[in-house]
Design a protein that fits this description.
By secondary structure, this protein is mainly alpha-helical. 78% of the residues lie in helices and 0% in strands. It has one domain. The N and C termini lie far apart (52 Å).
Amino acid sequence: MAAEVAVVAAMNSFLIGLQFLTRLSIVKQSVWTERGFGESVRYFPAVGAVVGIICAGVVGAMNFFTGGTLPILTGATAFALPIILTGGIHCDGLMDSADGLFSGREREKILLIMKDSRAGAFGVTAMILIAVLEFATLAELARLSTEILCAAIYSAPIIGRLMMVVTIGAFPYARAEGMGKAFARFTTRRTIFFAAVEALLLMLPLSVGGVKIFLCAATASLIALIVAWKFATFATGKIGGVTGDIYGAVTMLAELSALITFLLTAVSLQ
């Protein structure tokens, strides 16, 4: 009985995370408790795996049936599809973070800028740079092979959301209140460990593709961790902690660095 209750609670937390971080809604949930919302953090890598499976399936099939002859179109699809699936929630966080953190203002003004729904010059510039780099990386991955492309597309969302969990648990929350407050309140080192093991198990199937792909994923995870940690540290120095927007920015930067590292590692091991 206790095991069944635990399984139901875990599934409920996963579904909350899936509905919040994506446009996918298996079971419509309109009433969320703060605890349920906060405890969904541990299942963020699994949410990333769902996004990764869908994207890898669609883009992989596209690259396979075109014989890799349309890498530009394939790269564009691989870039756009995760944004469609997530509703651009992480893009919004990236743009708001760039507008605030690079405004040159004091802490309170930065926080106000980040809450503003309007996009500023820094936010637009940051999004364009991310888009160009990610699009080019995905196009080059499409040129290499469908297997490597699928592995990268599958693992990047898992890595990105694991780095979000690390940021939530390792850095203080900067605002007195906010949606991300529930995440921070219920996320501990144990949560980070749980999410890390979860991410590792989710990426173990990549080992079927051989040592090369597994090494690419491992190296990508390490570099993404360094990038996420550096950015969260930078943000903490500016505003005394992190916010929900920072969580989104960390996810975007971690995914981009993971994809670039995956590509560079794959090329170097050829």
